[in-house]
Amino acid sequence: MELFTELLAIWHSHRIELLVLTGLVLAYFRIYHVRKHEDVASVADSKEKDTGAVFVRTGSKDKIYELPLVRPKVIARQKSEGPKRVTGGRKSSPHKSNGIPKESEEYRVEPVIYYFSLGGSTTKLAEALFDQLSRFATQHVTILKPQMHNIVDVDFDNHFVSPSKASGVQQFYMILLPTYNIDSELTTFIDSLTETHNDFRIDTAPLSGLAGYSVFGTGDKEGWPTEADGFCTQAKEVDKWMARLTGKKRAYPVSTSDVKEAAATLSAWRKGIEEVMLSLSSKQGLGEGVTGSGDPVESDDSDLGGDDSDSSRRKKRKRPSPTADLEDIRGPADLETDFTTIPSSKPKEMVPTISPTYTALTKQGYTIVGSHSGVKLCRWTKSALRGRGSCYKYSFYGIASHRCMESTPSLSCSNKCVFCWRHGTNPVSTTWRWTVDPPDLVFAGIKEGHYKKIKMMRGVPGVRAERFSEALRIRHCALSLVGEPIFYPHINALLGMLHSERISTFLVCNAQHPDQLAALSHVTQLYVSIDAATKEGLKKIDRPLHRDYWERFLRCMDILREKRDMQRTVFRLTLVKGFNIEEEVGGYADLVERARPGFIEVKGVTYCGTSTSAAAGLTMRNVPFYEEVCAFVEALDGELQRRGLGYGIAAEHAHSCCILMGERRRFEKEDGWHTLIDYERFFDCLESGREFGPEDYVGEKTPEWALYGNGGFDPRDVRVDRKGRPKEVEAEKETGKVVEI
């Protein structure tokens, strides 16, 4: 007992010294153990690298040379005095792996055959290929049984935008195509690939998840002996666009054959494909930079500027980009001149057929009419033809999208808006300095171009017959495609021709041409784009070319107020987060009070992802959520009510991220909002020759489903997901970022 007491006393007297000593001993053994482990590891590594020999083939005698042993130096790592630095890198995208999956993944290849045929010969080739690949699949466990599809029967979006994905399986596309010199569904297919590539809403390489692809084309060498004469041009065109959509995953060179030798050529092509699929399934990839192994320029890509085989002489001479604004190419803008001034030289065409602007616009789906007009089929028109919903103009004003033509008589504009979704390829100028096409040529050309595009939709899966028939009779023209419609010197004559066929008109201007706006005759509805509430904000977001842009803008506000008793006037506010949505609503309320428009459309910006927007710092972060647009509209509504201006929130189209406000005195009655338009009444008033105003052609009551808070989707149509599958409309508001198509 006494011993325990003494030990306890010693502990209380020297416990600090004992604890420190114990800690030092433990630290010593810990350091010794770690260093011993590192020495053993370094010795083991050096032993693995010390031995070796090299086998050299000299051409006459083969010798083995022993390599000298070089032991690596072990450099002790010095302890850093500063904070630990963590380094990392951005993970590469899936298509950068060149088709090589991770080692841990089970990997199988599924062949998918696509074909098109009018006479049946290509169908027989596809069936023979299917049978041979089916037998090949039974002999190799890594190759799945093939699929076979006629291009006419597939939904392009499901197969060439968002293909099906399965764990551990990658599809291999094989496309068999004949050659035709007539318009057919094959033309529609090629146009669809082109549009997909140029559509900023879709990923640059939506098919990058494929294992690879290859194209087989047939043609008649007697009729078309060379490619220049048309031999297999459509197959090579498809090959070119597939190279872009897959992210350079051409697994085997495009094969072309005369129809008389197609079976033998197909057999040789198939054997090459089988070898490639086995290589892919064994995780060897497609190769890198080898012609026929993913090289994107095997088919002639010179038209898109991707060919590296040009002479150095071309590099020395600086050439304008195909997507450059004409003002940037030509230099600073000319000083504004009177139209009566005699020009020093003969005016040139705005968009000549040999210009890069013409090439760029046609690749984006535009039909160029004459030298300065254009027409394009809106994606909402395609959606309405298939019963998948119409745009906000149907919810707000009763315009059927499948009967609407989107066009412009002037591809030129006076602004370079940072959010312009027309890819920045339209020409820009402050004055009209080109040749002028007569209005009858423009009118006939835009109708012809629109009807041609509508007829191309006849073979698209899901198109409703009754809507297709209705689409062949244009009832509405949206003069808002690109450029500045009122810039066209004969705009009033063109409007008269449209109205003579009882085609209603919506015209959009950017508030930079007050004289032309003042001289404008009747339109069904007149829009003015309001992208900022201050002079600095307008300069930042619209980038106008006129030096007196703000004075022009305010003059247009005053002119709009003068026209409010003659026709329906609309403010269109485009909200861009980081540019104008943070501005006080008081500035916008000042403009509303000054111009007193009949309606106010507030819409979230549509992100386009072009170089123009990127240079301005515009990204997806600048696209407001729908709930943010709603909050802005409610704040603006409160400010307008505080001022006693008599506006209210009328309707919405959530999918377009768009909300409509209107004057209560004019467009709200006892039974509710009446934002729709009585189009027949409008034409009757116009033909009568008497003065009339917007109240004279107010339409029926706005449908319940279009009112604010109900989403705005037409219940007659079927809402679909990205795969084209029907889905139920959620009762609650969508809060994700939405894009108007």
From TrEMBL:
Keyword tags: 4Fe-4S, Iron, Iron-sulfur, Lyase, Metal-binding, S-adenosyl-L-methionine, tRNA processing
Record organism: Elsinoe ampelina
GO MF entries: 4 iron, 4 sulfur cluster binding; FMN binding; metal ion binding; tRNA-4-demethylwyosine synthase activity
Enzymatic class: lyase
Annotated Flavodoxin-like domain residues: 111-274
Pathway linked to the protein: tRNA modification; wybutosine-tRNA(Phe) biosynthesis
SUPFAM superfamilies (UniProt xref): Flavoproteins, Radical SAM enzymes
Catalytic activities: N(1)-methylguanosine(37) in tRNA(Phe) + pyruvate + S-adenosyl-L-methionine = 4-demethylwyosine(37) in tRNA(Phe) + 5'-deoxyadenosine + L-methionine + CO2 + H2O
Domain Radical SAM core: 397-645
GO biological process, one term: wybutosine biosynthetic process
Region Disordered: start-end pairs: 79-102, 284-351
Record's protein name: tRNA 4-demethylwyosine synthase (AdoMet-dependent)
UniProt xrefs under PROSITE patterns: FLAVODOXIN_LIKE (PS50902), RADICAL_SAM (PS51918)
Cofactor(s) the protein requires to work: [4Fe-4S] cluster
Sequence similarity: Belongs to the TYW1 family.
Composition-biased stretches (Acidic residues): 297-309
Signal peptide bounds: none
EC identifiers of the protein: 4.1.3.44
Taxonomic superkingdom: Eukaryota
